[in-house]
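The protein record now logged underneath.
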Amino acid sequence: MIGRLRGILLTRQPPQLTLEVQGVGYDVEAPMSTFYELPPVGTEVVLHTHLVVRDDAHLLFGFATEAERAFFRSLLKVNGVGAKVALAILSGISVTVFARCVQDNDSASLTRLPGIGKKTAERLILEMRDRLSDWHVGPAAAGGLHGAPLTEKPDPISDAVRALIALGYKPQEASRMVLAIDAAGLGSEQLIRRALQSMAKA
């Protein structure tokens, strides 16, 4: 089991990034909550990881904090919630807001997340209620050291749309979410954050 990686951030294209550790490049999927806290490309970073082994692939997921990883693992224990859905939940809603939805039986807010239907939302509320005390999420910190950044944001709008599609939104919906934002001067991760925030308020 790979539980932690420390290396140089080579690429960051939500929801995937590549981390070089002693000459080996690890492709890692991460929630947007982690991407918001990543240092610039070319900088050292520490990620807490979770390895999912399938018949056709080994998938590595990375998180800025141990608490994020614990929340992700709790979500995986819910019947019908796989790694992709768990990643979308972490990207689209904070742990604090999720906990409030669980406490208030607010399934309607959870169904706004991609991949979450009414039955899955109700199951999340039922099965996660007893685990609320297990999550203690403070400000996320990737623990990276400063270094020379290698900028690579040629088309923030397209990158944001692709990231939202990878998180489970339909292409037309992802385009609509991004195009509804004033993109002037914003990078792809800022666009993704605003798009997800707009969906949470819908």
